[in-house]
Design a protein that fits this description.
alpha/beta, globular, magnesium, Coenzyme A biosynthesis bifunctional protein CoaBC, 8-stranded mixed sheet, metal-binding, FMN, Rossmann fold, 13 helices
Length: about 425
């Protein structure tokens, strides 16, 4: 769909600038005409010749560089681009654009364009979480600029947190998905068909599995892929909701517009959810959280020795149950993956955890298990309210669940 389009890739001065080389390469392979603008600081990390060789186009750095064509540089690039992607987007460029400052070629081109501008932030996690930076990001989002969530993990500075540049393959997929959704009429700015019936709601979704460490090499986990939770988040966003995902380890791109907190263990997920739930109207607990963890975690790899080995497990906190105690007027939705007595077990969970609704499925049914793109669910709100649905794509299941949440909201008078 993007073949023949023109992309302007803005590269800022951060250690992650080297990853922009692969982004340019991947965009070229999709058939785009790629033009690179580097800040002067970016040129300290990656030589412009690298980008010129891969893009087969001149690379622009300074405002007063000798022009390659007889045209005003920033106006020429701003007019010819079908989109601009800034990768890595530093706190500096985000702050400049948010403040209306145009003092170099990249910020000037962004100011002069009318096409979509996609920022892919990358910076130290403390800098990313700084309230000034977050305020600038929120301001630009409200003005129509697009942001891809940064990844979490080990930073070049040696610390861990949210602020890593996503992998180039994920960045390019994000760009493709953005324009596919826009082309299909799903993008919020152009879509008039999708109902915006959740625009007044904020929804917290947990998704994916958790991992409980045994030693530095091994862990206990389950088969959850996170597809159902991410489908709910994406559908809620399209219908106008504010969405946050607390996600275990998954291999799924974050839906555009969602905030995400990445966690590993059940206790980490519990902590993030309990820190956040008060800011949300609806709590949808889709994650397959490990019920137990190792009482002791070996700091070294456990060597194979005896024929048998015993690992002592202790209970993890029950996130949904704890939310049921403090939810007040919030809507709490749970999930119940079962292999037998589906309705009986789901009803017990619904009542014992003070949920408003539970979505149950028999994971032994074909098309209803983990890692599939489909699901077969029952929606249960009590003994007198059990709805069974046929096999459906998880996106359709997500919309059904959101419709049922709206019914609960109307009866609660929320």
């Amino acid at each position: 769909m993007l073949k023949g389009k023109t992309a302007v890739v803005g590269v800022c001065g951060g250690i992650a600038a080297y990853k922009a080389v692969e982004v340019v390469s991947r965009l070229k392979k999709l058939g785009l005409d790629v033009n690179v603008i580097m800040t002067k600081n970016a040129a300290e990390f990656v030589d412009s010749l690298t980008f010129r060789s891969i893009s087969n186009n001149p690379v622009t750095i300074g405002m007063f560089d000798e022009p390659q064509y007889w045209d005003i540089g920033h106006i020429s690039l701003a007019n010819k681009a079908d989109f601009i992607v800034v990768v890595p987007a530093t706190a500096n460029i985000i702050g400049k654009v948010a403040g209306g400052i145009a003092d170099d070629m990249l910020s000037t081109t962004i100011m002069a364009t009318r096409v979509p501008v996609i920022f892919v932030p990358a910076m130290n996690h403390n800098m990313y979480e700084n309230p000034i930076v977050q305020s600038n990001i929120e301001k630009l989002k409200n003005l129509g600029y697009v942001f891809m969530e940064p990844a979490s993990g080990l930073m070049a500075c040696g610390t861990k947190g949210k602020g890593r540049l996503p992998e180039p393959s994920d960045i390019v997929k994000f760009i493709v998905d953005f324009f596919e959704s826009e082309n299909a009429g799903i993008n919020e700015l152009k879509n008039t068909n999708v109902k915006k019936d959740l625009k007044d709601l904020s929804i917290l979704v947990t998704a994916g599995p958790t991992r409980e460490a045994i030693d530095p090499v091994r862990y206990i986990t389950n088969r959850s892929s996170g597809k159902m939770g991410y489908a709910i988040a994406e559908c809620a966003l399209k219908r106008g909701a504010k969405v946050k995902i607390v996600s275990g380890p998954v291999n799924i791109p974050v839906p555009s517009g969602a905030e995400v907190e990445n966690v590993i263990s059940a206790r980490e997920m519990y902590q993030k959810v309990m820190e956040s739930y008060k800011d949300y109207d609806v709590l949808v607990m889709v994650a397959a959280v490990a019920d137990y963890r190792c009482e002791e975690i070996s700091q070294k790899k456990i060597k194979k020795s005896q024929e048998e080995m015993t690992i002592k497990l202790v209970k993890n906190p029950d996130i949904a149950k704890e939310l049921g105690k403090v939810k007040d007027n919030r809507i709490l939705v749970g999930f119940s993956a079962e292999t037998d007595d589906v309705e009986k077990n789901a009803l017990e969970k619904l009542q014992s955890k003070n949920m408003d609704m539970i979505v149950a499925n028999d994971v032994t049914q074909e098309g209803a298990g983990f890692s599939t793109d489909t699901n077969i669910v029952k929606i249960i709100k009590g003994k007198e309210y059990i709805k069974s649905f046929p096999i459906m794509d998880k996106t359709k299941v997500a919309d059904v669940i959101l419709d049922e949440i709206l019914l609960i909201r109307s009866t609660k008078g929320c």
